[in-house]
Amino acid sequence: MTPLTEVEGRRLALSNLDKVLHPVTGTTKGELLHYYATVGAAILPHLRDRPVSFLRYPDGPEGQLFFTKNPPPGTPSWVRTTPVPRSEAPRARQVVVEDLASLMWAANLVVEFHTPQWRAASPAVADRLVFDLDPGPPATVVECCRVALHLRERLAADGLDAFAKTSGSKGLHLLVPVVPTPSPLVSAYARKLAVEAEAALPRLVVHRMARALRPGKVFVDHSQNAAAKTTATPYTLRARPLPMVSAPVTWEEVEECAGATADPESLVLLMDDIAPRLERYGELLAPLFAPERAGDVP
């Protein structure tokens, strides 16, 4: 019998709590749900008022993975949805995770959380710029950190602050708070900086997606600034054999990882690492929510 749990006055049926989802560590679904309950105060501000897309992996990362934007069948009536602009589906709606009960309902589906750079109240008007730094083997997150430091300095020259988080996979994400700006303008600026980075660091950076160009280099993916694209939400677990998290890191950690003798594993952050890091550092991405930290896109 599926146990019922009450979360903020909502009754949830949490299923298959003993199912192993991350095989390397033996992490169960119950432990996954405990993680989200523990870090709810950190992840919810990044989800709130943003339409969420789900990458579902109900049988673990080695099972079937499928990406969905539409509200899943059986979505409770109390879970908020919002209209979203989609040319192929003019009346489309997506879930908005705005409270702990909604977070736990969604986590019970076993999902990665992905969100756009804009809020539901202002579609296609970005308040964040993002770079996804993706290493092409034999490059690793070490090379990503070197590129991140270059981009941080370049963004600072334009009066913009950058904050780093792990992708929860092989690379690194940079998040930049911006004054609300139409997504096409943010996309054009991000592409410009990616092209500049390739010109400045031709042996390290590529700005085009073609895989033939990427071995040994870092792909500076600027495309996720397009209004239709999404990025892994801070603090989301990823569908990997290990319970890896897309989590913020300090610039000191990035600098250390960029060193000549750095260990790429130093920026692998697992589920059990996050609560202690929040206690130690607080919310490293808090400046994303401070209007005074948002810069104008040139």
From TrEMBL:
Coiled-coil spans in chain: none
One matching Pfam family: LigD_Prim-Pol
A molecular function (GO) term: DNA ligase (ATP) activity
The organism's place on the tree of life at top rank: Bacteria
Alphabetical list of InterPro entries matching this protein: LigD_pol_dom, MtLigD_Pol-like, NHEJ_LigD
Keyword Signal: no
Record keywords: Ligase
Domain named DNA ligase D polymerase: residues: 28-261
Keyword Metal-binding on entry: no
Enzyme Commission code: 6.5.1.1
Enzyme class: ligase
The protein's name in its UniProt record: Non-homologous end-joining DNA ligase
Species assigned in the record: Streptomyces flavochromogenes
Taxonomy of the source species: Bacteria, Bacillati, Actinomycetota, Actinomycetes, Kitasatosporales
